[in-house]
C-alpha cells in the first residue's frame, strides 16, 4: 500500500545538510497529514493532526504560510508522541512513503522521531517523490539549473495534470490530497514505471484497469479549512499604529541612524554628500552612515560632516579645551555625523563549509577609537571572513567592541529574524546576549515600512524594551534618498542579481529579488514624526545616541619630508601660504636637465610631454616625492 504524507513546520533548517540529530537546526513539525491508498488506488485512511507546541513557539512567518499560530496549535494540537505513534502504525501497514519534495518531510519528521524515541523509522522504508527531473520534463517549465526545466511545484504539477489548481495550498491535509491525486495519476499515465515502484507489469496493468480515467480528488472541506486558517492568522499581525494626535516635527529630536550609500555595492543609490546635505537641510540633529559590510564611504562621509558650518570650529575649540589650553565649556556640535557599519555577523567567520551570511547588525562608533575598531572589524570581515559576503562573528566583535554602540537592526537583524522565523525563546536569548555585552550602548531598532513582519516584530521588541529596560529608536533603514529614486534602486538590484526588471519580485525560481515596497527612502523629519507619533520617545532617543558621539576629522595633510632646494629656486610666497612654487620650479629644472642628458635635443613633442607631466604633479601637490 501507499502512504502519501505532508507536513507543515516552524520554518526551514539553517543547514540543509546537517544531520538529523542536530535538533537545533531542524524545524519543528506543527501539522502532519496523510492518506493511505491500496494497490488499486482505493482510499483506505485519511488522517490530519496539528501538534501541540511543547517548549517552542510557531513563528510569525511560518504562521503566515500555513495559518497555524501558537495559540491555535495549543487549542487544537495533540501531543507529539501520540501523533508519531499513530503515524508509525500507519507506516507499518505500507511499503511506500510518498510526497512532493518528500526529502524535506522525511527529514523534519525523522528528526521529530529522533527527539522523541531516538529511532528514525524512515530508514527502513522506500520513498517515492513526485518532484523529480522526470516530472520536470513532463511539465517543461523553463528556469531550471543548467538550462534544464525547473522542478515543478505541487501547484504547477497539479495544474499540468488536471488543468486546475487546488484550494488551501500549504495546509498539509490539502497538500496531501493534491499529492495523492498527482501520484496516482502519474502512476496511471506511466510516469512511475513498474521498476520505480518495485512491481511487475501486471501490477501496473491492474491499476490502470481499475482507473481508466483521470484520478479524482477525494474532496476535503475547503471552507472549513479556510475558516481555520483565518482564525489562526487573527491577531498575528502585531502592532497597529493609531496615534491619538499628530506629532509636530519641531517638538522632537530625530536623526536617521540606519542609512546605506552607493558604497553598499549594488544595493543602495544614495550619494554620501547628498545624504548629509538632506539631513542638514531638513533640520535633523545628525545622521549616520551604515553601509553593508564595508567602510569605504567613511572618509567621504566624515569630510561632508566636518564641512557643515560650525562643526570644524566646535571641534577645534573642544580640542583646545581638552588639552587645557582653554578654560571654557565644550561647544555642542551643530550637526553630528556618526560613522557606522552594518555587519554580517555569522556563527563562525572562518567556516566555509556552508553558506552562512549571518544576521545584519548595525554598529556605530562613539569616537575615533570606536572608528578604529569598526575599521578592524571591517578588515577582518574582508580578509578572513569573506564567504559570499564579508562576515564577522561575535568572538571577534567582542575583541573590538570598545567605544561601539549597537542597533538591533531591521528584519535581518538577529533578534527580529529569530523571532519571526525561529521562535521567541531563541530571540530572547539573542537579546540577552547583546544586552549583556553592550549594556546601555545597545538599542532596539523599530522600523515602519508598512510591512506585517515589522509590525509583528515591533510588538515583541517593545515588550522586550519594557521587560528589560532597553531603550529603542525610530529608524527607516534607507537605501535611496527620495521615493522617486525607488525605481532606479530596483534597477540597481536587477543589475546585482542579473535579473530582468520585468521578472516579478518574489521567492523561488521564476521570481527575482526586490524590495517589498517603495518606503525605504530618506524620510523627512515630519514623515518620521507622523510614523512614530505614538512613540515620540523612539524619535528622541536618537538624540541620546548622538550625544554619545565625538566628532573627529579623518582628513589630514599628507606628511611629506621637507626638501632643501637651492636658493635660486625658492619663492618667498611659499612661506606665507605654504605653497610649493619653489619645489615645482626645482623639479622642472631637474627634469629638463635629465631630459637633455637622455635625449640630447628636446623636440617640441618631448617638451609638451614633460610639461604635461610636470603640471599633473603640480596639481596633485606632491613635487617633493617625484
Keywords:
alpha/beta, TIM Barrel, seven-stranded mixed sheet
Structure commentary:
With 626 residues, the protein is an alpha/beta fold. It has 3 domains: 2-233, Nucleotidyltransferase, domain 5 (2-Layer Sandwich); 249-482 and 521-547, TIM Barrel, CATH 3.20.20.140; 567-625, no CATH class. It has helices at residues 60-66, 70-76, 80-92, 102-116, 133-139, 154-162, 172-188, 194-197, 201-210, 222-233, 272-281, 298-306, 311-323, 368-383, 394-399, 414-421, 424-438, 452-468, 486-497, 525-531, 536-547, 573-577, 581-599, 604-620, and strands spanning 2-9, 29-37, 43-50, 96-99, 126-129, 286-289, 336-346, 359-365, 391-393, 404-407, 442-447, 472-475. β4 (96-99), α4 (102-116) and β5 form a beta-alpha-beta unit. α16 packs antiparallel against α17. The longest helix has 19 residues, at 581-599. The N and C termini lie far apart (86 Å). The mean pLDDT is 92.
How is this structure best summarized?
With 626 residues, the chain is of the alpha/beta class.
